[in-house]
Amino acid sequence: MNNYVWYPDDYQKNTRQDEEPKSLMIPQPKKTRFYKKNWFACIVSSLLTAALCLGGFSLVVYQTDWLDPSSPSTAQGSQTPEDITSGVDQSQLFFQQIADRADRQELSGNAIYEKVHVSIVGIETKGQANSFLNQTVALGSGSGIIISSDGYIVTNNHVIDNATEVTVTLSDGTEYEAKLVATDSETDIAVIKIEATGLPEATLGDSDAVLVGDRAFALGNPLGLDLSSSFTGGYISGVNRKLDIEGEDSNFIQTDAAINPGNSGGALVNAYGEVIGINTVKYSGESVEGIGFAIPINEAKEITDQLLNQGYVSRPSIGITISTVTDAIKEYYGFADTGVYIASVETFSGAQRAGLQPGDIITHVNGTRVNTIEELEEIKDQYSVGDALTLTVNRDGEVFDAEVTLTDSQAAANSGSGTKGTELPKADR
Question: Domain for residue 329, yes or no?
């Protein structure tokens, strides 16, 4: 029987016990010329491959601007403010406006309150009850803003509308009876006056500089004088808001600062303690929260200046009463065209001087097609009294242009549109 023994430590093969162990020999490759050529070829091939890869990478970088900081594909973390703003509509202007404020110091909430609240007043009104007894009853309450040290106060028209008595309460509790200066229902602005001097007038800001995201604060008397000089804060939620509110013609500033009944006529203030708006309206309902609106102070100041200087607001007028002609109306009545139908022409108006007649249909204003009253009014309101508009008119199929000079819609009446029906005493101007 043959016996085999394993010698792992000596790297020997299994051998028969009666044989001499043989040493292991590991074969070594021969260093031939062919072997040297293979190494040389590998080195050359590696260098060529590296060169091709580097060239391809450079071409991709050049075509895609991977390493260009201004490239949109740059990682978000490495973008500069300029890179970010270049991809947002009108953001350059937005960030420029922010940069322009760099030298202005925002105030703390405490400082803003102390600066502004002394210029905010409480307003309580009384009027005749709708009964045969003609009783004088409380109508409501609101807020106002002192705009001059000699007693002129701006508020909302709806705060003092139909009032026969108006009581103004200053921040220190002093009460005054107020008189009406003038009011304008279309913008919901009214000016009243108290006989006092040395009053702390509010600092007015620039509502055109307001940006979404700005801090905003509302000061007023929500729910009456029991909560006088209330101060709420939030942000500017939107600008140039159009609201479908009867009798109000304005762009509004939207804010989430709490505005409640009684805040009307009070101030919307920026982070520098400047009044940027007059709080006027809010959305309410179970599913609504934090949606309030203010009349921009730049617009309010323009209206206020006219009310103080002439007692009414001057607005451009063509001198016609109009209605919209739709396709259906055109088809039904057999009108010559769609557009704005002239129902009547006012005597001595620009329209009469231009030869316009009832039954004419306005199709264009200064070359721009108008299909509705709103479109015509939007163009007209961009102009002032004394400016001329070119109206394209269709008169029973005959088309012609008429140049109309805009007149003052309130000059003849010489009174504010919001003063009708009120017996509130007039202040001397």
Answer: yes
